[in-house]
Amino acid sequence: MARIVVAEAIAAAGLSALKAAGHEIADLTGKPREELLSALIEADALIVRSQVQVDAALIAAGPELKIIGRAGVGIDNIDAAAAERANIRVVNAPNGNTIAAAEQTFALLLAVARHVPRGDASVRSGAWIRGELKGFELRGKRLGIIGFGRIGQAVAKRAAAFEMDVVASDPVVTAQQAAAFGVKLQTLDQLLAESDIISLHVPALGDVPMIGAVEIAKMKRGAVLLNVARGSLVDEVALAAALASGALGGAGIDVFASEPPAGSPLLTAPHTVLAPHLGAQTVDAQIAVAVEVAEQIVNFFTAPRA
């Protein structure tokens, strides 16, 4: 039996899978860091989502730690190098929120295209500004997907139903793989220059944003940018300036460089729809990622190890 510290809330189905395998659960959800550090002293495993930062100090506090699981895509909040030095395995749940993230991408796109937030506000206020809210159809528009992994592919499938022309840029995907989804591969510069809508679906890439002033200058005037991936991918100052000047026609943003995004220029930028990191916030996705990470931890402690 392993002692598993759960530092952030995960769906009950994931906890049930761990308990059914005979493991002990220590629920530290919402507890201060000091209590988490203390709980890790005797822990064999740690589960987090996205808010708890598993840095080198946190890892060092768990001398018995053997595995760290993140109930979500990516391991941005885990110091993977420190874990490797301590011979701790790191796992995540790459499949569970694919559909939720793809659907959130279209929720933001449609909200931008049809001015849904402004329309809602105008009805509630009695202003009824119907004449000001002419949007655009998705049919026939070119959607450029940057990053053609699970989520990018799910977005492409849904774009096909809207009769969109879809292109993608991804250095590890072949033209044949993309063609299976009816998608044409392009270089990043081609995609930026020719797409009406650009959607990001790549992991965090370090300190330099993927989309900054230089990249925005390459985009079609009036293009729309969507980010349901990682906040660090976009230079928020450059994006806000492009929206204010009319260089870009809109943006749907689910993730931010700092969350909550206090002081971000996007909070006052025009033609934006902003969401509080809702890409994986569905009941379905939370169950799926919890079960996925729990099963990996159960398998880790069940399988014989050298």
CATH homologous superfamily classification of the largest domain:
NAD(P)-binding Rossmann-like Domain
**Coarse structural class:** alpha/beta
Envelope shape: elongated
- The span between the termini is 18 Å
Radius of gyration: 21 Å
Under CATH, the topology of the largest domain is which?
Rossmann fold
Name the CATH class of the largest domain.
Alpha Beta
Number of strands: 12
Helix count, DSSP H or I runs of 4 or more residues: 12
Specify the biggest β-sheet. 7 strands, parallel
CATH-level-2 architecture of the largest domain: 3-Layer(aba) Sandwich
Q: Which bin fits the share of residues in helices? A: 25-40%
Mean pLDDT: 96
Series of secondary-structure elements, N-terminal to C-terminal: EHEHEHEHEHHEHEHEHEHEHEEH
Please give the order of strands in the largest beta sheet: 8-7-6-9-10-11-12
The low-confidence parts are none
Count of separate structural domains: 2
Beta content comes to 15-25%
